[in-house]
Amino acid sequence: MDAKEFCERYAVERKGTNSLKWDALKDRFGDPDLLAAWVADMEFKAPEAVLDALQQRIAHGVFGYSYVPDSFYEAFIKWEKEHHGYTVEKEWIRFSTGVVTALYWFVNAFTKIGDAVILLTPVYYPFHNAVKDNGRKLVTCELVNENGNYHIDFDAFEKSIIDNDVKLFIQCSPHNPVGRVWTEKELKTILSICKKHDVLVVSDEIHQDLVMEGHQHIPSAIVGGGAFAHNLITVTAPSKTFNLAGLLTSQIIIENDQLRTQFDNYVKTVNQTEVNILGLTAAEAAYRHGQQWLDGLLSVIEHNYNHVKRHLNEQAPNILISPLEGTYLIWLDLRNVIDANQTKEFIQDRCRIAVDFGEWFGEESKGFIRLNMATEPRFVELAVENILSNLEDFAVVGKSSE
Ligand SMILES: Cc1ncc(COP(=O)(O)O)c(C=O)c1O
């Protein structure tokens, strides 16, 4: 399915449907009329198979306590095996009502107050919150940014671990917001460093299925033939892949028996809920029948990304666009064209776009923005048009106010 057909079939108006992205603009940005290009969900309906499965479930009319059916495990295990080469056993799987919730649990289950937790920044801001909100010490190691191309400084990472006696690394793979899909070599190096210093790794692989052509997501659990799986917890979900975030269903994979027991013992102190039957129903249908829909979605993301690249490269080449290898979130460095302190004034007040601002992901990223490509091309075209048409005028304003 190409991008045009996908949009014709699945694009839908979300304003006025209690969507965080569109209906919370006033609350979150102080302005209800912005073009919403922030939070990571989409203007697309879920695959038909998901809607059919949910409708059938709703027609049954009973929403009592639920139990995870074997068919769910089968569908998820098959997906992981076929798409990512990861053989997951049913006994290793646990559930949470969201990946971020799970991150908070991991921090509490596996570290003590005051322990150091390391992140590679810039990174998805709830990672920072999960560390800080729980009274742990946040240690950041900046990714190296070479004209928008990011890589890991392994020596700096190892030094930070040693200097701070780090206990836990929360990895983002693929990486939000810089769009990297880590190579096997990079993963092997970082996982080896963690193993050497006895640092537990939590790998957030929620974007595992959103990978552009020419790149391949490698689950950390299979790197080096599974050499690091003992020291690792993987968390993933169908929520980004199939636009199901509101159904609050995510999977945790813990191979190591001892870590799993420690996790279970912690979770029973904070969570006594059963699974969300609608979330599970949707997830199973998506894993079973969502492939064609996902292929269509990936062509929309690619189409939108190419549009941004083409127009900005031609008309504003000083805006740096990080290569999108994975996720559907593009990372733009505006610092060559506007004063970083005026990013909000430019993007929000002038261009009328709601974005995730760079500094949300780490202090070093002021002057960057993250834009969501999983939307209708007309929204992306409008965002690009607004940026380009205001740029010259604003850059002059910026200069005259210096
Ligand atoms: C890396 C990463 N982890 C977690 C989440 C959110 O997951 P959840 O909605 O399941 O808490 C996102 C959402 O964008 C994300 O990018």
Automatic annotation (TrEMBL):
Signal peptide: none annotated. InterPro entries: Aminotransferase_I/II_large, C-S_lyase_PatB-like, Class-II_PLP-Dep_Aminotrans, PyrdxlP-dep_Trfase, PyrdxlP-dep_Trfase_major, PyrdxlP-dep_Trfase_small. Its EC number is 4.4.1.13. SUPFAM superfamilies: PLP-dependent transferases. Residues 46-385 form the Aminotransferase class I/classII large domain. Its cofactor is pyridoxal 5'-phosphate. Keywords: Lyase, Pyridoxal phosphate. GO terms for molecular function: cysteine-S-conjugate beta-lyase activity. The keyword Aminoacyl-tRNA synthetase does not apply. Belongs to the class-II pyridoxal-phosphate-dependent aminotransferase family. MalY/PatB cystathionine beta-lyase subfamily. This is cysteine-S-conjugate beta-lyase.
